[in-house]
Amino acid sequence: MRFPMTVLRVVTLAPALLVSFVLTVVVCALLPPAPGLVAFLAAAGVLVALALGRFEAQAIAVLTGSRPATAAELQVMRPVLAELGGRGVAVDALFVRRHQASSTPVAVAIAAGAVVVSPGLVDATYRGGVTAAEAAATMAHAVGRRRAIRPRLELAVLTATAPWRLVVAAFRGVARAFAWLPFMRLAWTLRGVVGVICIVQSAAEGRAAPGILGGAVILLTYLVPAASRRIEASAEAAADQLVVSVGLGSVLAGLLRRHGHPMTLKRLQRLEAAASRRRGHGCTWSTARRSLRRCRSAGYSSSAKPEVEWCTQPRPLPSCGLWFMHGSEPSLWEQSTQRTVVRPGVRLTSVAASAVAITSS
């Protein structure tokens, strides 16, 4: 069953907002009257200012642990931003995280037109470990995720739910600390049974309200993660679609494959769908060689290696329906006794084959 994104967002945000509000009120109530009132009014004022679009840069820096990109970092990322702008994906502000952990996302789109990238992405782009197109595909995917979720009052909501995230992080830390105890996983798995017993016992004792409240809390431990997984899957699919629509699907697939990122077959096919639709017609090896000579005679260079030849500029060759594309070396070779499929760069090799099918990027 498919649920609207709005419903899924309500399921995940309502408990977070409620718990955060209760925690804020409790903390302010524990303070002396005057400081407690000032703290509560200050928190409310900050939320109103963020909802009105004020202090966005400062809020992004605090919430994501980042800072605005320096002049040197902007110079490194300028080809990436130009690549994105040329494909219709605008990035108005670039932030770089101060620290990077193993779980740190490579790129996150936040607020209107701002993207937060990891320092590792900037370093890899500078050193050539990641091409400008690959970095652009990563950032476009982050923008696509935000477009799919369509968050409203994003910075205000993130600030308001900060107490909830702190509580969740604390509970996860405690759970990891005691995960070595026997039957801990079994006890968490059977929490639904505990909720049912809580409701039945409370109703039998004439105190149904506490039992229903406890059962509702346990029910949320099922609903919130399930809704979060639905949001994640829907956002990922929409982001992949955006990357494919701007012509970077195969680039992102190659990047994820090269770094060993786990991908389902469905997602791989989704990212490479555009490339497979643009697959050229097969032709004999002699026809491909004649087409390559035509390309060279037209003034386009080829590789110096005798066993591998490819053109460095895009040029259609209607004689056999091929496109010789400018690009990097192919990331995947599929060879059989019948044909050689070359992608994503269109590359011709002199391997023994009775036919050659060329796939353009």
Question: What's this, in brief?
Answer:
With 361 residues, the protein is α+β, with helices and mostly antiparallel strands.
Largest sheet, strands/sense/barrel: 4 strands, mixed
State the order of secondary-structure elements, H for helix, E for strand. HHHEHEEEHHHHHHHHHHHEEEEEEE
Indicate the overall shape: globular
The share of residues in helices is: 55-70%
- Per DSSP, the total helix count is 15
What structural category characterises the helix and strand content?
alpha+beta
Q: CA-to-CA gap between the ends?
A: 36 Å
Look at the structure and give the mean pLDDT: 77
The poorly predicted ranges are 279-288, 299-361
Question: How many strands?
Answer: 11
- Rg of Cα set: 27 Å
Name the beta content range: 5-15%
The main sheet orders its strands as: 1-2-4-3
Write the layout of secondary structure elements.
Elements: H1 5-30, H2 33-51, H3 56-64, E1 66-68, H4 71-86, E2 93-97, E3 107-110, E4 114-117, H5 119-127, H6 132-149, H7 154-160, H8 162-177, H9 184-189, H10 191-204, H11 208-245, H12 249-258, H13 265-271, H14 273-277, H15 285-297, E5 308-309, E6 315-317, E7 322-324, E8 332-335, E9 339-343, E10 348-349, E11 355-358
Parallel strand pairs: 2-4, 9-11
Antiparallel strand pairs: 1-2, 3-4, 5-10, 6-7, 8-9
Helix pairs in contact: 1-2, 1-8, 1-11, 2-7, 4-6, 6-11, 6-12, 10-11
